[in-house]
Write a structure and sequence with these properties.
Four Helix Bundle (Hemerythrin (Met), subunit A); 231 residues; 2 domains; Tscrpt_reg_HTH_GntR; mainly alpha; GntR family transcriptional regulator
Amino acid sequence: MKTGTDWPIPASRAGRGQLSDEASDYLRELVVSGQIRPGTRVRPELIAEALDISSTPAREALQALRVEGFLRYEPRRGFTVAHLTGADIRDVFTAQSLLAGELAARATSRANATDLDNLEKIQDRLRAAAARDDAKDVEQLNHDFHRTVNLLAAAPKIAATIGLLSKYAPRRFYASISGWQAATLEDHDALLRALAAHDPTAARAAMATHILHAGELLAAHYDERVDSSDQ
């Protein structure tokens, strides 16, 4: 579908859920990945056209992202992308690393042989998806891996807070960042060893390192993309 603009078109819209949520995810990902830079005007009709939806859920998405701080609203100009830097992204991932590390530490006391086997199977499938360069499967399996660890921790309030912070992590975009897939596999392996040893200190450190690593890759990518657009 042509939009008459340079807004990216999603590769697939199968299994669509709430349209305003879909529009929010789409736009949030464009902002955090640097595909649209700070100060860019965002009009609801362009979002609606790109996603083949009506303007109502597109407007709802813009309002939601304004509340989250991804967009600003200026009288007579409308919505624009808020100022964001790689340092901001690093700060968010630093906070996320502390919470995710706590969940991993708690998971060590609850993970049984079946849980560990399940995580190993997810990791094996993730490794196979990376080998065939299947970005969609890599992203989904990485999500499944982290969700499994978080559920094992049995700390829903901490997990919910991580969910808010993870809005700065464009899930469907990560696999295209150079070095991310290899880093994910290595970092997950270290975490699996800590979980198998039921070592909370090692698990906390492995998960925190993994989250910080991912944040640094995203922040560096964002800085490079935004800086290059200024030239």
